[in-house]
Amino acid sequence: MKLDIFVKELPLKHTFTIAHQSRDFQETVIVQLEDRGYYGLGECTTNPFYGITVENIVSTLEKSRKNIESGQWATPHELWEMNKTVFSYNPFAQCALDEAA
After folding, report:
1. Whole-prediction pTM value?
2. What structural domains does the chain harbor?
């Protein structure tokens, strides 16, 4: 199993505005899991309200890289169990990995 992480700034068609901010793009982390020519993709976006940044999403995924790439799991649930302490502080990163798995 191979883990790839991509960081993108996706432009928004219209400025997104809420009470505490406006933005014209959305920072997004894309996760790709590849195994024997097949791959799955997942994604998550940053969220300032929850303190979710590109840096802490990528850091969380990197902390779990060894478990992810070991291939010692067969289902997303098994992957969650192997990494639950790492992902307990960043469910956004866990969501992206789960989508890819």
Report:
1. 0.89
2. 2-100 (3.30.390.10)
